[in-house]
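pasting Glycoside hydrolase family 127 protein for the record, 633 residues
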Amino acid sequence: MITQENIKVTAYKSDGFIGKYQKLIRDTVIPYQYSVLCDEAPDTEKSHVVKNFENAAKALHGEDVGDGFYGMVFQDSDAAKWIEAAAYSLALYPDEQLSATVDELIDKIAAAQDEDGYLDTYFTIKDREKRWQNLLEGHELYCSGHMMEAACAYYEATGKKKLLDVMEKNAEHIYKHFITEHNEGVPGHPEIELALMKMYRTTGNKKWLLLAEHFINKRGEDPHFYEKEAAKRDWSVWGNNPTSHDYQQSGKPVRAQSDATGHAVRAVYLYTGMAQLSAKCGDNALYDACKRLWESITRRRMYVTGGIGSTVIGEAFSVDYDLPPDTAYAETCASIGLMFFANAMLKNELIGEYADVMETAFYNTVLGGMQLDGKRFFYVNPLEVVPGISGVSPTHRHDLPVRPKWYACACCPPNAARLITSFGCYAYGENSDMGFCHLYADGEVKFENGMELICRTDYPYDMTVNYSVVKGGRLAVRIPGWSDTFTLVQNGEKLDIKQINGYVILAVKDGDEVQLTLSDTPHFVYPSVKIPAVSGMAAIRRGPLVYCFEDADNGNVLSLALKRGGKITVCEPDTDNPDGITRLKVEAVRFEDNNKPYSFDEPKTTDTPAVAVPYYTWGNRGENAMRVFMPLY
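structre below
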């Protein structure tokens, strides 16, 4: 079994498609999001994040906090994810002004930390006596987890330890409360589990490994913990049901869990921590549970776009094959969490399917969660939108036809920013004698084991990937499951190498040239007949990109049906589009509307080409209808 001992690469600077997005994050998204955190962005939902830290510092000194706390109970996490995005960007593009801005924010965060290490502006400002009394809803551990991730990223990018010192003090406080003093409880919203694993890798402090293990092992040990906790208090944050064990992933110990249930983001954050711990400790029972949960998601509860969490009720998984396109929730953060889970599974075992899903989630739902100019964002990612119904009807109000600028619950925008700037951590991995190429992106990469590569590619629109080996070793290159053919050439010689779990393994020397060519043929994707909402329909996929159909290209997209087995033509790249997208043309028919809700008269049809664009680009040309799955005729 091939595993990754270390997934950190010492440097990864991308050009091409990914590099364009990383520069967009640097130039547009990071400055814009900071203006939001400071309540300086015009015509944008108030955030108050920075002000909350300032007010918490005042509260600790007994000063008047004025406007007090504003926002969600987890508002602090927006600052943490912004710092993390900025840290990864600084690692790629050093910037003294941005670094100074981050340092200024860190000073305010440090000032908001209580003497005992506690750090949470909601409870510090509103009621210090209620700390740790509401793990179900309070998000104290969730916020700490995100700030721990930010601290690790900023230290690794800049060498500056102030935030890391703050979060080590915070972690000591948490360790004392739950381990030393034996207070019961597990996070209502998992996140700190994976964050503690990062803290352990960054600092080497085994306390953080033990604390992560504690939270994972204790989860579900007492399925009624949250009920007992709620009975001890006479207050609530927002009325979460403590008896909903499946929603909290707390009905069974984690090693006994088989179905992905409940709040989708919470679930995949938990599963990520589990997979990281199983890889670190060689816990086969934990890895077996992760594999069962992985199969539950990817075989029965995942959209073709890599979206997960199909219902708006609780932002949650529902039941097997309940994947309606028009009421899909498919939160951007959930697909980001799915990428975390997939990446953690790759630490346990080098299996191409994990990277396949990671890639699908990234190029479709994650990128689709952000407008092409980086200024608007989707929280929810439907696979079908109809103006007048989507965003309007009570059943479809969450499925918006255009991206808003910001949200009161703004977890997704900074989450997407930190994911994109840290793309190299998902594209590459390593162990002591091998470099892993999980995803393809133009740029240079240096591994900690000494290997160096330069990748040149126009992926995801061109399927040729070229590797120039600067410093050699053993190289494992993924062959995607969607590519029914591939060719591999090393120094001009075509290789005949068998795949091992979706990877080919090469011995490469300094100066070697390796070229991988994948299939560029677009395909129909047919859903299982068990998925009732799209049974008998089809989607289109080319490479990692799922395509969709919009009114902007087709007129009334609801009047179209694709010809069964029809020809799909790859168009020339759109040089007028700043994203340089490649459209597809598909043979189709258009049904004539007889202007009646129902009729005995068979509608007339005319042949017409239907134009498809990559799903991640939809909703960038004003409000118009969109479909991923189309009827077949």
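The mean pLDDT is 94.
The chain has 17 helices and 21 strands.
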